[in-house]
Amino acid sequence: MSRHKRALDDRDSHIRSLRIGCAVLFCGCLLLGYGWYSAPKDLTVHNPPDLRSGSTRAWWEVPPSTVYSFAYYIFQQLNRWPKDGSVEYEQNIYNLQAFLTSSCRSFLEKDFERRKAANELKNRERSVLEIPGRGFKNSRVEVEGRDSWVAYLDLVTDERYMSEPVKSSLVRYPIRVIRNDVDPERNPWGLVLDCYAEVPQLLSIREGEDE
Q: Between the CA of residue 202 and those of 7, 69, 130, what are the distances in Å?
């Protein structure tokens, strides 16, 4: 009789152990499920354009080529007025606000109002393009810190009034770029323009010169 009772006690003890094990396993699955659910669904990794020699970098590091490309692309879109700057300049500022700091947006809005009051925008067409031979290289991006850079864009600025050329100048634009990875839905770059780091400079380029 005692042997039978001992066998029953061993069975009950084993069942309790299995139940405890199942409870622990269930809790572990819940924790894993929560970790999987709360993990970021997208992770932006910046890679340089030439990967023939491989690339090893921290995932949060932004290479100078990406900073330069971002600054050039957004700045070019801001200054693309194909028909009428009095309408398109303001619209560009609004459309690109996710790629601008609040202070930069305020600066551009004041610049728009100033130009509009001076009658510099009505029927004015504008575009900016890279000066040939003055594209990206590492020296064109100054690293201010982990989350701040200055990209030096050497651009041809062309303006027309009623389709007639009125201005063509070579200008170096020092554009500050800041990391701001807070809204990947509206800004997948995770970068924003902070407008000019210093006053833009007119350039005078001699034939054959490449800096």
A: 95, 21, 14
- SS3 at position 123: coil
6's tokens? 């001992």
Report the CATH number that the domain containing residue 123 is assigned in CATH.
3.10.450.230
Residue with tokens 């050329």: 165
Q: Which two three-digit tokens encode residue 35?
A: 């970790």
Q: Which residue carries 């770059």 as its tokens?
A: 189
Count of positions (residues) in the chain:
211
Tokens of 122: 């009505």
Of 203, 202, 193, which is closest to residue 78 (Cα–Cα)?
Answer: 193
pLDDT one-digit tens code per residue, 46-77 = 555 555 545 555 556 788 999 999 999 999 99
48: its two tokens: 């340089």
Alpha carbon distance 99, 88 (integer Å): 17
Give the separation between CA 38 and CA 127, rounded to whole angstroms: 44
pLDDT tens digits for 185-197? 899 889 999 999 9
35 is a domain residue: no
DSSP strand E in the chain: where? Answer: 124-130, 141-145, 148-161, 164-179, 191-196, 201-202
Distance CA 162, CA 115 (A): 17
Question: Domain range spanning residue 120?
Answer: 64-202
